[in-house]
């Protein structure tokens, strides 16, 4: 069987902001391996920040909406973990470092 311990799998991830009719993200499927570096590229408004906020848990904990799908890390769906537990695996470095510390 394939070793999924060093993979981060985004499986069928969709998201709709609470105050929106349309989904902002639809059925994303991405497989990331330990040690890889990825660039997320897209037009303004295409959903980059939305995606990153879902990974970190800012969505839907602080910004409300409906998340569907799974984020599988070390064979566990971390969407089901609370935000404190998830923060041990996922962190964000913001654009303006001076305001982050
Ligand atoms: N809190 C919110 N409530 C409702 N809609 C939102 C909210 N935040 C963002 N959106 C909408 O979701 C879509 C994706 O926005 P997002 O900010 O994720 O795009 P982005 O790719 O990060 O853009 P940029 O390159 O300008 O940073 C846009 O249509 C935006 O208007
Ligand atoms: Mg953005």
Can you give keywords for this protein?
101 residues; alpha+beta; four-stranded antiparallel β-sheet; 3 helices; 4 strands; 17% helix; binds adenosine-5'-triphosphate; binds magnesium ion
In short:
With 101 residues, the chain is α+β, with helices and mostly antiparallel strands.
Radius of gyration: 14 Å
Q: Which residues sit in consecutive blocks of at least 5 with pLDDT less than 50? A: none
Order of secondary-structure elements: EEHHEEH
Mean pLDDT: 91
What would you call the quaternary organization?
single chain
**Largest sheet at a glance?**
4 strands, antiparallel
Intertermini distance: 43 Å
Number of helices: 3
Number of strands: 4
Side by side, the strands of the main sheet go 2-1-3-4
Secondary structural class: alpha+beta
User: Helix share of residues?
Assistant: 10-25%
Structure ligands:
adenosine-5'-triphosphate, magnesium ion
Overall 3D geometry? Answer: globular
**Strand proportion:** 25-35%
Fold and architecture overview:
The chain has helices at residues 48-56, 58-61, 83-86; strands at 7-17, 25-33, 65-73, 76-77. The protein has 101 residues and is α+β, with helices and mostly antiparallel strands. It has a four-stranded antiparallel beta sheet with strand order 2-1-3-4, with helices on one face. A hairpin with a 7-residue loop joins strand 1 (7-17) and strand 2 (25-33). The longest helix has 9 residues, at 48-56. The mean pLDDT is 91. The chain binds adenosine-5'-triphosphate and magnesium ion. Adenosine-5'-triphosphate is lined by residues 17, 19-20, 24, 42, 44-50, 63. Magnesium ion is lined by residues 48-49.
């Amino acid at each position: 069987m394939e070793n999924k311990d060093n993979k981060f799998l985004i499986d069928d991830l969709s998201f709709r902001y609470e105050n929106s009719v349309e989904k902002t993200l639809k059925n994303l499927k991405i497989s990331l391996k330990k040690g890889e570096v990825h660039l997320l590229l897209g037009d303004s408004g295409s959903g980059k920040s939305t995606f990153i906020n879902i990974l970190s848990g800012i969505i839907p904990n602080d910004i409300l909406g409906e998340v569907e799908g799974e984020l599988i890390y070390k064979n566990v769906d971390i969407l089901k973990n609370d935000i404190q537990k998830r923060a041990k695996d996922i962190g964000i470095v913001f654009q303006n470092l001076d305001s982050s510390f």
